[in-house]
Amino acid sequence: MTIAWNDFTPWSALVGGLLIGLAAALYLLGNGRVAGIAGIVAGPLRALRSGTGVALEHTRLLFIGGLLLAPWAWRWFAPLPAASGDVGPLALVAAGLFVGVGVRMANGGTSGHGVCGLGRLSLRSLVNVLAFMGAGGLTVYLLRHVL
Amino acid sequence: MRNLIALASGLLFGLGLLAGGMTDPAKVKGFLDLFGGWDPSLAFVMGSAVAVGMVAFAMARRRTRSWTGDRMEVPDDTVIDRRLVGGGVLFGIGWGIAGFCPGPALVAMGGGLASAAIFVIAMVAGMLVHNRLLPAR
Predict the structure, then answer these.
(1) Sign of CA dihedral A135, A139, A140, A145
(2) B88 with A41: Cβ contact below 8 A
(3) Neighbours of A129 (CB within 10 A)
(4) Which of B2, B45, B71 to mutate to test the interface with A (most CBs of A within 10 A)?
(5) Mind telling me how many Å the CA of B13 is from chain A's nearest CA?
(6) Of A17, A67, A96, which is closest to B123 when you measure between CB atoms?
(7) Domain of A32?
(8) How would you classify residue A32: left for phi > 0, otherwise alpha for psi between -120 and 50, otherwise beta?
(9) What is the pLDDT of residues B66-84, one digit of tens each?
(10) Which residue in A has a C-alpha nearest to residue B29's C-alpha?
(11) What is the pTM of this model?
(12) What's the total number of domains in chain A?
């Protein structure tokens, strides 16, 4: 294993994590809810299907609105950081389907189990994090170094 | 008030993802790629987020109501089963292919990244497929 020192950005990573943690803390202490993005997206979908209407899902929709607006707020102060994908639309669709099914099966992903679950020292969440980290690492290994 | 808190939380969460580099699929894959040149940055993102989260959950444990007066709804599920592990594996495969997970994909979509929008649409479809095929636990 070699470390890519040129890509390593520890300070912005720590600041980013701090903001994410504070956001999760605000949502938890303020509204009494866990800031798991998968669950926040799934809530309005479930409401839509069960016919109870999305009106009850205002808070979740506003959280999603905040995520969507974040790049606009960022642009007031600085140019957006670069974001480059290297996969085509078919791979994106496959990846999105895997992620959508996977986070619902496990009832959470990077934020729900990763940030919040580990934050409350849940063994269940640790198992999920190890599963997705392992599978993610193996997938990148196969795609970059084997196939 | 709870709506304002939700909007502010989402905004702050999104800014954190941007600052931490989570919205860049190349950066995410650099973290997942242990056998290329490894970029450990995202472990620092997660580490500091979890550290703040620990304080928040310790504070939450001593409360029965949130600031807005809602009941605290902290998950207490401890079940470790095939669904938890299988879901994690599927999620990890998708994460490894695209370099997107749900939050950063939504933020990148908000910033106008077309590939993120394609991913998000497929992700929502995946959630709907799940709800149709697998019964709620």
Answers:
(1) positive
(2) no
(3) 24
(4) B45
(5) 5
(6) A96
(7) 10-79+88-146
(8) left
(9) 999 989 988 888 999 999 9
(10) A140
(11) 0.95
(12) 1
